[in-house]
Amino acid sequence: MGRPQKTHRASKDRSLNTRQALREAALELMDRDNSFDGLSLREITREVGVVPTTFYRHFSDMESLGLELVAESFRTLRELLKVARQTAVPGEKMIRRSVETFVTYVRAHRRHFQFLARERFGGVAAIREEIRTEVRLLQSELATDLGRFPVLKTWSTEDLNMVSGLMINAMIGIVEQVLSSRRRGQDDDELIMIAEKQLRLIILGVPQWRSQGD
After folding, report:
1. How far apart are CA 61 and CA 66, in angstroms?
2. For 62-207, which CATH superfamily applies?
3. The whole model's pTM is what?
4. pLDDT in tens, the chain (214 residues)
């Protein structure tokens, strides 16, 4: 009785492994200076060592693979940044913790962020839009957390989103610095210090702004 369940589980595990291998193959090929819209389905399946028909058991087309890569790139990042903001002491330590978490995550997932940085203005419209949607979600979540600080409780949603947008844009700049830092011989401590200063400058302007409230 137990054998069919084991067989089903093993089959499911193999399927998940193949799906992951297809995603990793796409990232590996793009790491060789290919854009996503320059990849072919056959290149990816050849990299994994499976026949092209196997691809369609996991993805309906190349676009769906790209969209899953976007979702995979942002999913854990949102949770990590949320935990960093909630567990750090408000103020400068929250900024430092968030930046350290962010830089470490980008470094550990370099190929994902190279994909995002390139495809943010790339040739596949659906992927560009999905990246914008994920960035807006990050901005909205940060705005919600900022609204919990006493000095910002009277701020309008529009103004909270404006500040969080400035901070997210600074973080996008950090991604570009992390991706190119090794070529310049720049270490993470220097990157974190620069990013922290940029975010502090944004925060310094907060008390001077007179929000009209919602």
Report:
1. 9
2. Tetracycline Repressor, domain 2 (1.10.357.10)
3. 0.81
4. 455 554 444 455 567 799 999 999 999 999 988 899 999 999 999 999 999 999 999 999 999 999 999 999 898 788 777 776 666 555 557 778 878 888 888 888 899 999 999 999 988 999 999 999 999 999 998 898 888 888 888 889 999 999 999 988 988 888 888 888 765 556 788 888 888 888 888 888 887 888 776 5
